[in-house]
Amino acid sequence: MDTAMYAAGLSGSSWYLSTLYAEHDWPTKGIAAEHGKLKDNIDSSVLWKIGPSYTYLYMDAILEKKKHQPVSFTDFFGHMVGETLLPKNKNTILSDFRHTIHGGKAPLPLLAGIHAKDSVSAHKFGEWMEFSPFEIGIPKYGTFYKPEMFGSKFFMGKCVKKCTESPLHYYQGLWGSAFTILFKRISGQQQVKSENISEETIRNEMEEELAASTDSDNDENDDSDDEEEDDGVQHQASSDKSSQQRSLWERMISSLFSNSDLLNSRSWRAGVIYNFMRGISLRQTHQNDGDEIEKDFGHWQKLEMSKKRMMVCDAGLAFNSPYPLLLGPQRNMDLILSFEFSSRKSDDAEPFSEILLAEKWARINQIPFPKIDTSVFDKNNMKEVYIFKDSEDATCPIVMHFILANINFRKYKEPGVKRTTKEEMAFGEFDIFDDTENPYSTFNFKYDDQTFERLYQLTKFNTLNCMDDIKQSISECVHRKKAQN
User: Fold this and answer.
1) Which CA distances in Å does 52 have to 58, 247, 474?
2) For residues 395 and 372, what is the distance between their CA atoms, to the nearest angstrom?
């Protein structure tokens, strides 16, 4: 068939996709072969890879990078994520994924970040960035460059300082940088385990942090030289009591940013790179209503091309679904299978908050998107998938909105195969968001084997259980194309 397939992700889902694609032979071996590795890698929390042995391990690499490029806590965080998810593939680079997908063996992976502004909430300004094995850029301006050049210094469209291609773990730290808010809780001031923090609390804190304005070493307005003659780490004794109470890892990382208060810095949470569009004149590629855009998502505002640096962070801070990567006119999407695993207040709560934001984004950008009719939801008769389409517009993609819900899985271990034994019944009998002891949260960094296996099997079951719906939607897309031709 003359088709193209994409696998898009942001935030935590980008960690999964990038970890999977780092295994070049997974398309031939299958996902199941990587399932056990991932389960073993996340049975301990990434948050605890901040001991002295790990810290010293990361510091040399970060200090070396600091000689040539801006750095932030994202660099440190990326090492931690990589140490957890990529223990044998930390040196993998994004362009290596070309081998994984060569010959159409796997969908083209598209990972998301957003260009954010200092002291401005991502809800008010956030320009979506697209990362693929072939190019990185901002679709809003139609500007892209190869992953091999990511982090290099550009002026007027030309590379004036080539830097080594960034390792995959750096991207993982960048794509999931919203999670760094948790580190404020495990610093010397707040010793709290992430597993005990509600997702609603974390998201509220992130929004407050994004709206805060503080000075930072990585100020995008700063035009000082980045190269330093002496990058040695200096630990100075301090009589200040609060400084003495700081944990070892915080003091070491603070030495990297000699003039900044890490835990209150705006750019501490974001990746900082050279502005690859510096000195060039661009126009937006989308037509928008300026008044509305200024209020919603900030798309009418433009990047100041004179800025030396730009901050790139977790796209989930805008909204938690990567639709903007797929909805560009050049992709001409017919069918989108969306797996929505964002937090809900309860298992029977309405699951449309993020897709409604995606619909709003598409309307603002005048991109075809089906109307999201929330009246189809009945908490007493929930479904594993909700299908949205526009029968009047053949250019509008069909959206299959899969939700995280334990409905038929409680009684069936496979589609059409009922559970019979006590062990099988017990395995399928669990709540997700209503679990009083261990509620599901996208901010969990650690999953025991049973929790991991339940969520994995549940997602697999829900997808297979809707296979007839998937086939029907594909058939409808084919008939649409034939009618257009």
Assistant:
1) 10, 10, 53
2) 16
Mean pLDDT score, 331-359: 93
Rg of the chain over Cα atoms, rounded to whole angstroms, equals 23
For 291-304, b/e burial (b = at least 16 CB within 10 A) is eebeebbbbbbebe
SS3 string of 236-276?
CCCCCHHHHCCCHHHHHHHCCCCCCCHHHCCCCCCEEEECC
Tell me the per-residue pLDDT of 96-128, one tens digit each, with 9 for 90 and over.
Answer: 999 999 989 999 999 999 998 766 666 667 889
Choosing from 217, 314, 334, 347, the catalytic residue is 314
Q: At what angle do helices 73-85 and 11-21 cross, to 10 degrees?
A: 50
Which regions of 28-134 does DSSP assign to beta strands (E)?
Answer: 108-116, 127-131
Choosing from 11, 194, 267, 338, the catalytic residue is 11
55-79 pLDDT tens trace = 777 877 888 888 889 888 888 888 8
Going by C-alpha positions, the residue among 52, 31, 37 that lies closest to residue 88 is 37
Q: Which pair of structure tokens corresponds to residue 303?
A: 């990047």
Taking the alpha carbons at both ends of the chain, their separation in whole angstroms is 15
Backbone angles phi, psi at 139, to 5 degrees: -55, -30
Contact between 484 and 334 under an 8 Å Cβ cutoff? The reply is no
What distance in Å separates the CA atoms of residue 219 and residue 455, rounded to the nearest whole number? Answer: 41
Q: DSSP string of 116-140?
A: E-TTS-TTT--EEEEE-SS-EEETT
The residue to which tokens 């296979």 are assigned: 467
Helices (H), 390-466: 422-428, 449-465
This prediction's pTM: 0.84
Annotated catalytic residue 11: yes
Confidence of residue 408 (pLDDT cuts 50, 70, 90): very high
Do 130 and 58 meet the contact criterion of CB atoms below 8 Å apart? no
pLDDT of residue 153: 94
- Catalytic-residue membership of 265: no
In this structure, are strands 127-131 and 271-274 parallel, antiparallel, or unpaired?
unpaired
How many CB atoms are closer than 10 A to CB 11? 23
Please name every residue paired with 93 in a beta bridge, in sequence order, or none if there are none. Answer: 167
Would you give the distance in Å from CA 345 to the centre of its chain? 22
CA-to-CA distance for 78 and 432, rounded, in angstroms? 28
The answer to whether 420 and 442 are in contact (CB under 8 A) is: no
Inter-axis angle of helices 168-175 and 73-85, to 10 degrees?
110
